[in-house]
Amino acid sequence: MTATLRQAATTVANSMIDGTSMASALIGGAAGAYLGYQLAPDTWTDTTRILLAGATTVIGAIAIDGLAEMALAPLRRLMRTRSPLPSSRRTAPAPAATLDEALAQVVVATEEDAARRAANAAFRIDDGDNFLRSEDRWRGYEDGEASFYLAPGVVLHHRAERGEYKHHFTLLTGDGEQPVAITGMEQIRHHLAARAAGLPAGTASAATGDGHDEDKATITELDNHLKALGA
User: Fold this and answer.
1) Predicted confidence band of residue 113 (pLDDT cuts 50, 70, 90)
2) Could you write out the DSSP letters of every residue in 107-152?
3) Handedness of CA 196, 199, 204, 207 (dihedral sign)
4) What's the pLDDT at 10?
């Protein structure tokens, strides 16, 4: 399937999902209005019955739409992971006149491929789809690996095993700390918070389940710092 057809299919699928969500809300609202009006006592005035119907319309729409979203949420995530990343595609360069020029073109293409591959794979640790999926933030390299600058001295590294379709994300620092395998955004958050608080390097590993019992006091200190940042 070509990129154009894939994009069209994705657009149609997303439209159907959104249409289903809207239809469920309308059905729930209509059912709520009908029941609210019909179940109101006959002794009530028409104005009161209409107000009750309006209230049950809102409740019915929210309730039915909420139930529908429980079924539609997995489909939305699937469409999001399969949707091509928005990017400004440029045309391919003109055919190279020399071997050196061809090599330079392939190097650029390899770096761009590595950055795109890392951004595409980032949903494995960033389901929010609004941070690590940004292709522009990734820097690709000739060896197919890529890095994502997080903060001074802190970089997220991506390496793919193409044959086995595996993706490895590792947090690297420039102060001699051991690389840390990353499987979720909460790990990155703990590591950055620990560094911001000036806590020991092992604190973040302990907070994410890789440390020992003696680190509990330090973890508590880290959590208090995270709460302070949130406040």
Assistant:
1) very high
2) HHHHHHHHHHHHHHHGGGT-TTSSSTT-GGGEEE-TTS-EEEEEET
3) negative
4) 66
